[in-house]
Amino acid sequence: MQKSLLIDPGKCTSCLQCELACSFEHEGAFSPAKSRIKIFEFGHGARAIPYTCTQCAEAWCMQVCPVEAITKNLTTGAMEVNEQVCVGCKVCTIACPFGTINYNRDTGKVVKCDLCGGDPKCAEACPTGAITYVDSDWTGYERMKAWAQTGQAPAA
Amino acid sequence: MTWQGKVLRVNLSEGTHEIEPLNREWADLYLGERGLATKYLWENMDPKADPMGPDNVLIFATGPLTGTMSSTSGRYAVVTKGPLTGAIACSNSGGKFGADLKYAGYDLLIVEGRAPKPVYLHIVDESVEILPADDIWGSTVWNTEAWIKARHQNPRLKVASIGEAGEKGVLYACVVNDLHRAAGRSGVGAVMGSKNLKAVACHGTRGVRVEDPKRFMAAVKATHKLLAESEGRQDLTENGTDSMIDMMQEFGGLPTRNFQEVQFEGTDKLNPAAMQATKPNGHRNLVTNKACFGCTIACGRIAHIDKDHFTIVNRPEYRIASGGLEYETAYAFGPVVGIDDIDALTFASYLMNEHGMDPISFGGTLAAAMELFEMGVLSEKDTDGVPLNFGNAEALTVMAEKTGKGEGFGQVLGLGSKRMCEKYGHPELFMGVKGQEFAGYDSRALQGMGLGYATGNRGACHLKHDTFAEDMEDQTGKGKAKPCKESQDRTAMIDSTGLCLFTTAAWGVEEFCQQIDAACAGDWTPERLIEIGERVWNLERQFNLAAGLTAADDSLPKRLLEVPAPSGTAKGKVNELAKMLPEYYAERGWTAEGVPTNETLSRLRL
Asked: Band of the pLDDT at A151, cuts 50, 70, 90?
């Protein structure tokens, strides 16, 4: 079963545990500046929204890469950057409509979410369930159920 | 490891800065944040210096766990000599600023001197600039943050700044970061203003590494789980700190109308249920809860004001959702001034963040002014035509704004309760210790709280000790000295880690130790951590004694010592400080005059 990150902004408190977990997993240091997942706060923090790569099936970043440094992990479905091959041309950062692939000036390569090889640390770290890792085919399941419930007839 | 190993020292008089190595020997003895900043303050200034003069030193300090994955890892402390108390001031804050200061590569930021003209600091990793603040001098905190982010085209900057209150020397002005978190007490914002320093804006990309990552992550996982499962934590998440208002009301420890009473008839309009209730017009005060950096509790409230309320009918800029009521603000704008209008309280809370003021001290000062007004000592001639009766919500919001802007009677309120009461010949109406106003707990009902207030190194404060359990169990002065001393030491240690006190809903010293021991080089035991707390407490005491304070300053107002509580579980009781204080000094290893003995000092390597 392929899984996807499911994001529920209504549950996000903007604690940044996901950014801490992500940077620790990939950089060995706690550094939100280097996190692949980002929390965006709006207003005075009344709304906080986690945002990261959705792993497009036909990924534009992958298609434009001139050196084929981005490949699909067939197990997890994640588009992964092969750092040995990436030349840091940044064309993928232009192609991605969502901005979720970015250049890292320290390494001269691009970085993006790789689902931590199928065990995403952001979801594990999230204390409120705003980020979960669920069956790709049924990311809408809980929302469907919630709407279905609103139309539920009173118990007989 | 986990300490960045660097201290940024800025001299505003000279307009210079230097980056110096962290004194690791001191870090091993004082840990970080509150403790380490106290040591640096002690070594860098004369405690007798004028707190509002250029010789005072202002330190922003992170802890070894600040910026790590430990829960609540966003704390930083502001340590300086306080203008409200003339004692050491130590205020800490959450939000996200502290983590970014650490990520920029600094354990401490030390600010010395006084800039000839208003300036702000712009720090991005190694790049440090002292820039002119002429365009934002006179701006509110919220406008200052927006201006700085736009000026540098960097939304990732975190900003700690002062409002007009800090610029104008309101003696309880605070430092506000991330719009509505604050290093709130003792006037640390007034010191920042006296240095002509409007703001510190900072962003860091350096990250924080720990000594033993594997063991640290195991400790993080275990401690997160403990917090997640704790009932105290669940209550904080759901209701914020405001649950306390119902507890104190029931117990009869809720200071009301300047401590003339200990229970307030309007708590059901200010409690968590009131914040969460939907009014007939569809308005609900609470919008959501919000976390500080790294925090898995998220006790912060985001609230908004009913659009039809008198406070914002003509103020569209405040028709937003922002930081809502914490317990202390609910107390200080509620019972102690006799007001039960939750929208007025929320608006006044916005004004505290906008102008940068401590709500506890403002509310405490207004309460004393209201008592003076009702006694006839003050009249509408003195108060710009505003009737300062207890219960007048408009008086609260009008005076909050006047104080923040330094206008009219607001200039008097900006002196704090002690100086104001002395000015009008009624020093006995000041409800506080060492010039700082009480938090929302009456020490006739909570005896150990009274001892903690009286001996507090930064004046009256509810956050530097914890004797709740003992106080609830027994309402006499018996057996309070030891838990007061022990909890002061424990709290001083926690305040030195970079984490938040609210984690004690689930964690004891052992849990802090697991995280410190994995993150920091060296061997760390609970005993060593507690000793650090005791060392910090005694060094703060040394600072205060050197500044000229004496045992006479470890006192409570006569109202709490001589006038019995009129109702509640402690009806008929007064605080038994005279019984507790000698026991406390003995427990501490101090003389009968409250001075640490040579044995105590050498045991603590002071």
From this structure: confident
For an interface test with B, which of A30, A31, A121 has the most B Cβ atoms less than 10 Å from its Cβ? A30
Report how far residue B177's alpha carbon sits from residue B103's, in angstroms, rounded to the nearest whole number: 16
- Do A22 and A61 belong together in one domain? no
* Pairwise CB contact (< 8 Å): A32 & B291: no
Bridge partner list, B201: B122, B159
Same domain, A59 and A86: yes
The DSSP secondary-structure symbol of B388 reads: -
Asked if A29's CB is within 8 angstroms of B293's CB, the reply is: no
Q: B101 and B178, same structural domain?
A: yes
How many independent structural domains does chain B possess? 3
Average pLDDT for chain A: 95
* Number of domain units in chain A: 2
* DSSP conformation class of B93: E
Q: Which domain holds residue B588?
A: 439-603
Q: Tell me: pLDDT of A111 over 70.
A: yes
Q: What is the pLDDT of residue A156?
A: 52
Q: Which domain holds residue A108?
A: 55-112
- B218 touching A, CB under 8 A? no
Q: Do B454 and B404 sit in the same domain of this protein? A: no
Average pLDDT, consecutive stretches of 10 residues, N- to C-terminus, chain B (606 residues)? 95 98 98 98 98 98 98 98 98 98 98 98 98 98 98 98 98 98 98 98 97 98 98 97 97 98 98 97 97 98 97 96 98 98 98 98 98 98 98 98 98 98 98 98 98 98 96 96 98 98 98 98 97 98 98 98 98 98 98 98 97
A90 is a domain residue: yes
Residues in chain B closer than 8 A to A43 (CB atoms)? 320-322
Chain B partners of A21 at a C-beta cutoff of 8 Å? 69
Which residues of B are less than 8 Å from A45 in CB distance? 178-180, 290, 300, 302
Q: Does A20 touch chain B (CB under 8 A)?
A: yes
Domain endpoint, select from B402, B430, B458: B430
What per-residue confidence (pLDDT) applies to A154?
62
Cβ atoms of A122 and A21 within 8 Å: the answer is: yes
A8 touches chain B (CB under 8 A): no
B288 min Cα distance to partner chain A (Å): 7
Q: For residue A150, tell me if it sits in a domain.
A: no
In a domain, B573, yes or no: yes
Residue B547 near residue B47 (C-beta atoms within 8 A): yes
CB neighbour list of residue A23: distance below 8 Å, 6 or more residues apart: A29, A30, A31, A32, A33, A34, A35, B207
Q: Is B105 on the interface with A (CB under 8 A)?
A: no
A29: contact with B, CB 8 A cutoff: yes
Cross-chain Cβ contact A43/B321 below 8 Å:
yes
Pick the closest to residue B123 from B139, B136, B111, B140 (CA basis).
B111
Residues of B in contact with A16 (CB under 8 A): 96, 293-294
Query: What ipTM was reported for this prediction?
Result: 0.97
Strand partners, B132: B119
Closest CB from A17, A34, A43 relative to B294: A17
B310 contacts B291 by C-beta, under 8 angstroms? no
B449 and B405 in a single domain? The answer is no
Q: State the maximum Cα–Cα separation within chain A, in Å, rounded to a whole number.
A: 66
CATH label of the domain that carries residue A59: 3.30.70.20
Q: Residue range A31-45: average pLDDT?
A: 96
**Cα B199 from Cα B151, distance rounded (Å):** 13
